[in-house]
Specification:
The protein is an alpha+beta fold. It is built from 21 helices and ten strands. The chain has a four-stranded mixed β-sheet, with no helix packed on it. A hairpin with a 2-residue loop joins strand 6 and strand 7. Helix 1 crosses helix 10 and helix 14 packs across helix 21. The longest helix has 22 residues.
Amino acid sequence: MKITEYGIKDRQLHKEGQAQKVSAEQREYEQASSHKRIIENNTIIAKHQGSRLLETILERDNMNLAYLRVKRNKGAGGMDGMQVDELLPYLKDHKDELLQHLRKGKYKPNPVRSVEIPKEERGKFRKLGIPTVIDRVIQQAIAQVLTPIYETQFSEHSYGFRPSRGAHDALKACGEIADKGNVYTVDMDLEKFFDTVSQSKLIEVLSRTIKDGRVISLIHKYLNAGALEDGIYAKTPQGVPQGGPLSPLLSNIMLNELDMEITRRGHKFVRYADDCVILCKSRKSAERTLENLLPFIEGKLFLKVNREKTKIAHISQIKYLGYAFYSNRGKYRLRIHPKSITKMKGKVRTLTARSNGWSNERRKEKINQFVRGWVQYFRLADMKGTLREIDKWLRSRIRLIYWKQWKKICTRFEKLKQFGIETGKAWEFANTRKGLWRTVHSPILGKSLGNKEIASLGYMTMTDYYLKVCEN
């Protein structure tokens, strides 16, 4: 059996060694709720608010649904190396033991596997914590039960990680508020939100609604599970690790405190995850709003506002969820932000690079998949003219792929003839000494690998797909 550097056995259930400590911890959590928030006509919370919430989480149907969702989402394995395909046989052999440890409060989550993904800013990365597949099932089961409970408490102005809500709804809500004259924004940036959440504050907020100390204790264990990065274990005394099924819900529970405070003060706002925009009638009003909210955010929620990235600006000057706003005949409409185009081109360059070793069919599949996903996300924007220019550039990248593949002079000569170029011109062009990018823009290659030829090879255009799905 493989042993990690910090002494945790691979793929084993982990037990808390001191039962008395667990019991004391549970009592502490049960007593933590000095705030009693009663929501009228809330039958869901009334049903689950007692000390039997863990039993609801561990019900067979709920656990089976959690397993199916984890399996469907696939994803990489955690620090123990177990993959999603290995999960079912493991659960069949260890289900009863696992459930027993969870009921008795003796289950100890594994540390997450820490990975970094690049952010838009060059040289900056976002840390993700990948839980083991077993911990993903347990977190998913917790989230499935807690989500309907907290949905009754969440603000109508929050849109991230919520059922039947998404980024497009947030963008439309922004436009509707701006149309009423609220065009000066507090574009707020919470610095490293997921990494800096106060766990004690989050536990306090959770304890107002969740009355089963075992559930609070289990969530706290997940927050404190630690992270494994390059084989080195690191504690996680603060923050909510991104990457698990539970973290989006916990972030919304924490930021709902901010939503309620903004609502109490009578401001118009839209929040998607930790991207919050407050919309005001004037610049002075926006400045006062930010000044008055800072003490609450930093003094009560213990979150940090990034002063450099938080700005007061007209709505036409901000980037929100990849979009930008502009005024047309008294109404605010959406366009794609230039930074989003730059990011998209970077992705296309990666997809069209020969260094990835893909076949033409594989590359075409990847490009078409990206085109569909990207256009679907930005379908609210007015961007027909922009997409025509992008399509020209994308076709040039595709021509470049084939021209590089026709490496030898004789190959280029034969391929050009196959595409209808007369023999003399084909031989002349096959021997060109022009640079690659100049060559792909030449008339002969534009004729041999023209728009129709590229379409016949199976490549879709952004413009055509946009006209099918756009909402303008």
